[in-house]
Here is the input.
Amino acid sequence: MRIQVTSVVEKYIDAVRRNDPKNLPIHPEVIGVFPMNTYQGAVAFIEATERFARIVKHIEIIRLVVDGEHCVALLNIDTTFGTIPFAEHIHVVDGQIVSVRGYYDPRPMLVGQT
Here is the structure.
């Protein structure tokens, strides 16, 4: 199971890295919870990922910690706002991501917004 979960998570990160959200290995009813918003369902998650991927320059995987169906991805995401340390708790079931909970400081992305 560890290899399958790692493979799915790496495919997910690579799809975001390449701004290719159509290849995200997500369940149709995926839930994404992030500091600035929550996304329910594949359509909303893909739309959010498309917007986010536009600001991404590079994603460095620091570490993937896998336990059963769960993976915590520790990342440095280089964006147009600078590098943002990022952690995601990703739940994988039957080769699809059913939920993602992201942890990061959104303040660099909020500078200049009112």
